[in-house]
Amino acid sequence: MDSGQLRGVVALDGPSGTGKSTVARQLAVGYTARYLDTGAMYRAATLAVLRAEAPLDDPAAVTEVVTAADLRVGTDPSHPTVALDGEDVSAEIRGPEVTGAVSAVSAVPTVRTRLVGHQRSLIREALSTVGGVVVEGRDIGTEVVPDAGLKVFLTASVEVRARRRSVQDSAAGRRATLTATQADVERRDTLDSTRAVAPLRAAPDAVEVDTSDLDVSGVLSRLRELVEQRELLADTATGGTR
What we know:
Domain Cytidylate kinase: 10-228
Shape: globular
Organism: Actinoalloteichus caeruleus DSM 43889
Strand order of the largest sheet: 3-7-2-8-9
InterPro entries: Cytidylate_kin, Cytidylate_kinase_dom, P-loop_NTPase
Protein name: Cytidylate kinase
Enzyme class: transferase
């Protein structure tokens, strides 16, 4: 457990394979904060679209499905949950079918407007109940919480990110060659960084952290330094901010 309790929002952005989810969850646990994985919300929305067999190139049809879907993303970092229409879909949303379609669904402006509103509601709830939240995604510092107390943009080489994705997929029983995984990572990078609405990019005031040569402990150490520097911790012993 880290010393102190998070006060405010830590926004972690970056492409796939930079370690966002792992470090975001651990940072939130250590600081007794909430955790929000916005990517999981878009993946659940994508699963709803796939199940409805709506055409990915029809924004109106995609929006209709997402609007009707009951998407619920839990904010407990120790036990994050993702549900679609009451069903736990935490594992299914990480599969190749969803991964291949999520960029198309998340690029629909009306879908982003709806889900960003939901994300902001969960963030407000977290701040009002426990006081702090770590939010990860691709547009947190630029669109979702532009006034976050700390914005961090995580990066890593495409080769490193592909290897990490391959390890995760193997552990989850998903099989793909390293070459195919790297091609998918590069495809996602291009789609996410060139979409018209809320493209993947670092906020002007974000701190960039390259995780290529850092393990999880190394990234967490750097993030804790930044949290301390921004004075986002309340001393649980005194109740004051430090």
